[in-house]
Amino acid sequence: MRLRGWQLRLLAFETACCVAVLANGGPLAAKETAKEVYPGKSWDYVGDPAELGWSRAKLEAAQAESRAIGSAGVFVVHRGRVLADWGNTQHRYQVHSIRKSFLSALYGIPEYARKIELDATVGDLGIEDNEPAITAVELQATVRDLLKARSGVYHPALAETESMKRRRPVRGSHAPGTFWYYNNWDFNVLGTVFERQTGSSIFEAFEKSIAQPLEMEDFRRSDTRYERGPDSIHPAYPFRMTARDMARFGLLFARQGRWNRKQVIPASWVEESTTSYSPATSEQGELQGGYSYLWWTELLNLQLPGMELPGGSFTARGAGGHYILVVPSWDLVVVHRMDTDAPNGPRADSHKFGKLVKLLVDAMPASAKPATPPPDPASLALPKRLDALIPGWMAEHHVPGVAVVGLENGRIAWERQYGVKKAGDREPVGHETLFEAASMSKPMAAYAVLKLVEQGKLDLDRPLGEYLPEPYLKDEPRHRKITARMVLSHTTGFPNWRPGGWQAGGPLGVSFEPGSKFGYSGEGFLYLQRVVEKLTGEPFDRYMRRALMSPLQLPNASYSWNERVAELSAAGHDAEGNPMPNRQLFRKPNAAYSLYCSPMEYAQFVVEILRRDRTGDQSLSSKSLAAMFTPTTKARGRAARLGGEPASADSSWFGLGWVIDVLPNGKLIHHSGSNGTGFRCECAFDPDHGSGIVVMTNAIGGRELCHEVIAHGELLGKQESQ
Questions:
Q1: Which among 62, 99, 105 has a CA at the least distance from the CA of 322?
Q2: Between 5-24 and 27-34, two packed helices, what is the crossing angle to 10 degrees?
Q3: Biggest CA pair distance of the chain
Q4: How many beta carbons lie within 10 A of that of residue 12, not counting itself?
Q5: Mind listing the pLDDT tens digit for each residue in 82-128?
Q6: Which residues have a Cβ under 8 Å from the Cβ of 394 and sit 6 or more positions away?
Q7: Which site from 94, 243, 247, 398 is most exposed, i.e. has the minimal number of CB atoms within 10 Å?
Q8: Peptide bond preceding 238: is omega within 30 degrees of 0, i.e. cis?
Q9: Residue 172 above 60 pLDDT?
């Protein structure tokens, strides 16, 4: 199993602690646990919170608020002791979707984790469902996709609320791994996978590996059951539990998986499973924080409406108002219950719970919530690292909006969006926001051109002029030597653009002998586009839709402006971050720069490139991919500037459509995009290890921001293996 850098650091830390205990006979462990209070068979209560600096009046205000919203129970644990116990905290209410966070914890316990491969697909594991059956594309969803609620399988599921049913996307609308949707099918199938792979029922495993080690006071197997029905063959797995037992579960995660001297859940799993991989949005599209492996997480200081909590906080949530809030940096756990057994009883949404938590936080003494310095970004997992760094880079470089997608092991691993689509407006950059990919249009066009080569319709080394009924340039005989290979590797002899640009129709000449040396040229791609249109008998944008975008399920990407693009597009901005006036709209396709798409759609294109299975109708052969990534033209004057390696004038090449940095530890494949309409973007990936990143920004200053992001990316196999 390959481990990320931060996982290795945590593993090393945990190993070092174990060695210290063994070497010193246990004093280190004794010293550490002496600082942490854990409940035994029953909880230890704080006698008078005021003696610890808590405001008695503000706690009373919080309790009054809990009564006002109809809370059935509130249980607050600070530093391992009960600070507040209001209502019926010993009643076994349904936990609803908090069951999912319980299952996430089980996935990390070594006894079970070693039997489950997170990157196995549901097809590998023989997962099916009743009619309408799971499709071939849906079977490519991995266990990790299920944990992130990104499977792309929108089959009816058990225990869905009416809201979930309304929001469920159309079957086949999103490829596995590419779209976050809070999906009960994912969560229920995770239960099936767990039981098949481990040979243990969820409830047996929870009792043995969590309830018993934590000495839960009230847990009993009779409070668990399977919920079955006609919608799906994969059952839901409801729990009933008391607030005080739920608080033990929360405290376990607040203490990084420790319980007294035992590491019940590896700290590395606590970190991984509570890292934000997706922005979580409301039905109205409002950003509400992040989502990890079946936990709701803090993202960009958002966790609960109306208040800020420290970085690293997370919640388990159940329908109707059930919450376990964990704030590790404050050693605080808040459990909230509602009587959802009463069909017409009160319910509490995140706004109501957030208001209650704010009152509790206001009652805390300052000493209990110290202003801790932000962590060293270098110590964080990449998504969290970017959360810490990108807002500062946006301010420095005057960039209103940014979207980033990360790839690991050849699959989309996480996404981030920051800022707004247009300066001065409030509409945030979202999952579907479209940017101008600019010159990143070229690699996608190159891929589709190579598809024509494989179909025998185009020869890479045949002069392009032979495919046209009349010369492309009437008074320039040297252009008749230009081939598709020269276009894709930038040796046509054309300038980048003719005087005044291609739309102005100015004179175009050949600057040097075609094929003799490097000369970056968008004009070459436009020439090749005309040949493609002749060979296919259709406009270039229509061919790209048919040959690549539709098979890859890129519903919004387009090489020309249309109504959907107008609805979703970000605005371009100048170097000061002001909207570009009179922005040019690309109503005619240009293979060199007119692609409108989201970073997620471009990342799906990269995933297709990295895919081992080359049998899809849209897929290029391994031979063609190897040609794309073979250094063909030394890009003189363009030193390698990515990958964290020293720049070298001899290390940057062009293959067929892509820039190739040949570095000591491998090849980094990349391409940038820069349009005068105010967009800057970058894509880079390591084809050997499947890691990569796509960054798109809506401002001229985004060039430097893109370079910063990629420099912090864990590319080129820097993640070690074990």
A1: 99
A2: 110
A3: 94
A4: 10
A5: 999 999 999 999 999 999 999 999 999 999 999 999 999 999 999 99
A6: 400, 402, 418, 419, 705
A7: 398
A8: no
A9: yes
Q: What is the rounded CA–CA span in Å between residue 190 and residue 146?
A: 7
What are the structure tokens assigned to 541, written together? 């944008």
Could you tell me the two tokens for 48?
């008078």
**Residue that wins the pLDDT comparison between 501 and 149:** 149
Residue 20's Cα: distance from chain center in Å? 37
What is residue 640's predicted lDDT score, i.e. its pLDDT?
Answer: 59
Amino acid 665: pLDDT = 80
At 539 the three-state DSSP class reads coil
Cα-trace Rg, the chain: 28
Q: What is the mean pLDDT of the chain?
A: 90
User: What is the distance between the alpha carbons of residues 46 and 284, in angstroms, rounded to a whole number?
Assistant: 42
CB count within 10 Å of CB 626 equals 13
Q: What is the rounded distance in angstroms from the CA atom of residue 92 to the CA atom of residue 309?
A: 29
- 596-612 residues labelled b (16+ CB within 10 A) or e (exposed): bbbbbbbbbbbbbbbbe
Left (φ > 0), alpha (ψ -120 to 50) or beta: where does 152 sit?
left
Q: Contact, 180 vs 169, CB < 8 A? A: no
* Site of tokens 């066009």: 445
User: Which one-letter DSSP state was computed for residue 546?
Assistant: I
Cα–Cα distances (Å) from 659 to 92, 315, 629, 633, in that order, read 60, 43, 8, 9
In terms of phi and psi (left: phi > 0; alpha: psi -120 to 50; beta: otherwise), the region of 577 is left
Amino acid in position 410 = G
> Does the structure show a pLDDT above 70 at 26?
no
pLDDT in tens, 642-697: 544 444 556 789 999 999 998 888 889 999 999 999 999 999 999 999 999 999 99
- How many residues are present in the chain? 722
Model pTM score: 0.84
What is the rounded distance in angstroms from the CA atom of residue 7 to the CA atom of residue 719? 10
Q: Which residues are within 8 A (CB) of 685 and not within 5 positions of it... i.e. 6 or more apart? A: 407, 606, 609, 610, 668, 669, 670, 691, 692, 693, 715
Amino acid at 270: V
User: What pLDDT, on a 0 to 100 scale, did the predictor assign at position 59?
Assistant: 97
- Whole-angstrom distance, CA of residue 590 vs CA of residue 440: 12
**Helix (H, G, I), strand (E, B), or coil: what is residue 557?**
coil
C-beta of residue 226 within 8 angstroms of C-beta of residue 237: yes
**Phi, psi values for residue 54, rounded to 5°:** -75, 145
> Cα–Cα distance between 710 and 645 in angstroms, integer?
12
Dihedral (C-alpha) 135, 113, 4, 182: value to the nearest 10 degrees?
A: 40
Cα–Cα distance measured from residue 172 to residue 342, given in angstroms and rounded to the nearest whole number: 38
How does pLDDT run across 464-486, given as a tens digit for each residue?
A: 999 999 999 988 999 999 999 99
How does DSSP classify residue 673? E
pLDDT, position 296: 97
- The full 3-state SS of 478-491, as one line of letters, equals HHHHCEHHHHHHCC
**Token output for 199:** 């040979």
In sequence order, the 6+-apart residues with CB closer than 8 A to the CB of 470 are: none
